[in-house]
From TrEMBL:
This is ATPase AAA-type core domain-containing protein. It comes from Camellia sinensis (Tea plant). Pfam families: AAA. Keywords: ATP-binding, Nucleotide-binding. One of its GO terms (molecular function) is ATP hydrolysis activity. GO terms for cellular component: mitochondrial outer membrane. Residues 1-39 are annotated as: Disordered. Residues 96-141 form the ATPase AAA-type core domain. The lineage of its organism: Eukaryota, Viridiplantae, Streptophyta, Embryophyta, Tracheophyta. SUPFAM superfamilies: P-loop containing nucleoside triphosphate hydrolases (SSF52540).
Amino acid sequence: MKPETKVGSTVPKASTSTAKDAGNSAPASKALEIPPDNEFEKCTRPEVIPASEIDVTFKDIGALDDIKESLQELVMLPLRRPDLFKGGLLKPCRGILLFGRPGTGKTMLAKAIANEAGASFVNVLMSTITSKWFGEDEKNVYLWLVLKHEF
């Protein structure tokens, strides 16, 4: 969690802003409008980025042209042309797994897809899912899936 972020705060800090911060004010995110229900939600809420705050596009990503084209076909085509997938002959994909070494652009591609689709981006970290206690991993995955329906 970022030290300067207050999770669950419903009142923006307007009294402490300075003139230099006035030009950089971002719209209040939906994550800060609704108070968290439990401790898990309080810890994971900063990982949800609303669509209006994502500033990555496919034009920002250099190279990876084959992958960008595949993602456009797999994700964006069913959203733009759902009529192509209603006949039963074509079916949209149910999910995509981006894998590879660190620093290869997986997160940037996911943010570009979310930006283009107008969807929120949720950065799920393994440290928020895994636990040393039996059954906690399944509970945390379930809580992530429940939390995603709120946004």
